[in-house]
């Protein structure tokens, strides 16, 4: 039985994605890794990290350690120089990986960083392009997904993702919060193998609202929603003040944290694990992991970028895909 093939989209061609993918592929001996990108680009960027890119074309019938699925650039790419002409190429890599997961060619997607600004400048996405997470949801017809980062001994999921801070309170409703917790709870069970997940839930306001004196979202929305879900059998602890939630003793009480907004939970996790954190998209009909950093245009082409986060993302994707394949074979 062949190992699940893991699709690695090499991301923004002007960023560090192609070279950290090449560095990772050179040391890969466990995963069946498929690099999605322009062959010439990957060959050039591999040279920056001292790697000879002698990888075969991807053949689903072969169990190669590393292969390339060639997707041509629109125009040649220079390290550090964004070009909107290649924005469609970036989305093509994602579309190819998504379609391959849905038809069973790939067991998971691992994504190198992309640059949201240049994709929006190019106007190649329908509407505003918010990022990988939202794009994957639209392309798979998933009503709601959940962003979760792992690292530093923590799993931190988000009730809202890429929203201006002023829009966060209105986005946290009983319906959206309930769906988020259902997705988080279900994927902790089915993908991470936790039989009875314990979830620590942060409050929205300072001191979790301090009894309504610093905001009523905890009283009006969060507490009633948690009570209803506890009645369904979920183990939910909170709402907890975010400024004291992330201490070792408190974290030991749960398997994951649900933060209410992006910069409430992620600075703590990234401080503890920057360069080795993993972004996981929950709720999708496929497995997707990613790096916890951006395109680092200033490092592109220098060979100095650290592939640690991508390596961690690949390891988790391999673990989840292999476990999923084992369950299906039983």
Model description:
With 330 residues, the protein is an alpha/beta fold. The chain folds into two domains: 1-142 and 284-330, Isopropylmalate Dehydrogenase; 146-279, Isopropylmalate Dehydrogenase (3-Layer(aba) Sandwich). It has helices at residues 17-26, 39-48, 87-102, 116-122, 132-140, 168-171, 174-190, 217-231, 242-245, 248-251, 262-273, 308-329, and strands at 5-9, 32-37, 66-70, 108-111, 146-151, 154-158, 198-202, 235-240, 256-259, 278-282, 288-291. An eleven-stranded mixed β-sheet has the order 3-2-1-4-11-10-5-6-9-7-8, sandwiched between helices. It is globular, with a radius of gyration of 20 Å. Catalyzes the NAD(P)-dependent oxidation of 4-(phosphooxy)-L-threonine (HTP) into 2-amino-3-oxo-4-(phosphooxy)butyric acid which spontaneously decarboxylates to form 3-amino-2-oxopropyl phosphate (AHAP).
Describe the structure in brief.
The chain is of the alpha/beta class and 330 residues long. It has twelve helices and eleven strands. Helix 1 (17-26) packs across helix 2 (39-48) and helix 7 (174-190) crosses helix 8 (217-231).
The stretches of 5 or more residues where confidence is low (pLDDT under 50) are none
Q: Strand-and-helix sequence, N→C?
A: EHEHEHEHHEEHHEHEHHEHEEH
CATH superfamily of the largest domain: Isopropylmalate Dehydrogenase
Count of the separate structural domains: 2
Summed over residues and divided by their number, the pLDDT gives a mean of: 93
Which outline best applies?
Answer: globular
Counting DSSP E segments of at least 2 residues, the number of strands comes to 11
Helix content: 25-40%
